[in-house]
Amino acid sequence: MLLELIQGTEGGGLIIIQDSIHYSGRTLLISFIKAALKRDEVVHLLAFELHEEELKHELGHSCLQRLKFHNAFHDPLGWNENPPFTVHQFITSELDSLLTSNQHSKPVTLVIDSFSFILRHLSPSAVCKTLQQLKKGGAVKTTLGLLHSDMHHRNMVGSICHLATSVLTVAPGHQCHEAVAKTIRRAKSGKISQAVERFSISDDMTVKVQSKPVPVGSGQGEAGDAEVDPTANLTFNLRLSDQERQAKEKLALPFVFSKEKKSALLRPGPGSGRILYEPDANDDYDQEDPDDDLDI
User: Fold this and answer.
1) In the chain, what percentage of residues exceed pLDDT 70?
2) What are the residue ranges of helices labelled H in the chain?
């Protein structure tokens, strides 16, 4: 599932890479950018936290020349005159003019590094509104961004991720060169698919999946996770031996009727079915109207 997203076979939409202090998702973000440039897509990058020199080192000069780099790193709040790009320009009208300034017929991949910086300076409702409008299509085919989940309240993270068609949550793996990606994919039909994969990123920014996708809820966990026995360290035994199980099966419970007891109770005997009643002297009984006491 991870490779399908990187290769662009999932049909675009809003893709969020959710990382934390334990593992940075920026290298994976750059892998997405390089894969899109290799497919000859038009890629615009809004760089709030990434310096151009660092990106040049990772991508190489040839890929960087084809990338539409919008420098929001040096002056993201617009304190100086004529800043290249500021956080306050993250609105639909400004983005439309920015993305359509270069004449091209190809759909655009918009990369944002990162959503967290934008959320620190704009209201969540304004950010969600812009992302929702970008999802509707137009010039942008795919919107890809990084979200530092441990910087925000979980309700804010949930609101942003709710808009996404795919959410990649990355975490460190068991090996130093590996990481784990939990992918949640929402199809247009409304179906939600989830998978967990181990992956590594080589020096040339190529992603290699180390394990097949494990569907969440299939009963299998990440590699190396053992099933925990809750009865392992108890001071008493909860299991029965074969001899104890046989004795349990032979035990006749007092409230359970056996076949013999049922037949004995249901077998008619002498005098069964008779009702003996002795009239009382005070009984008001009329022979002509035996149901007189039922009249209301």
Assistant:
1) 79
2) 2-6, 26-38, 52-59, 61-66, 92-99, 115-121, 124-135, 154-163, 242-250, 259-266
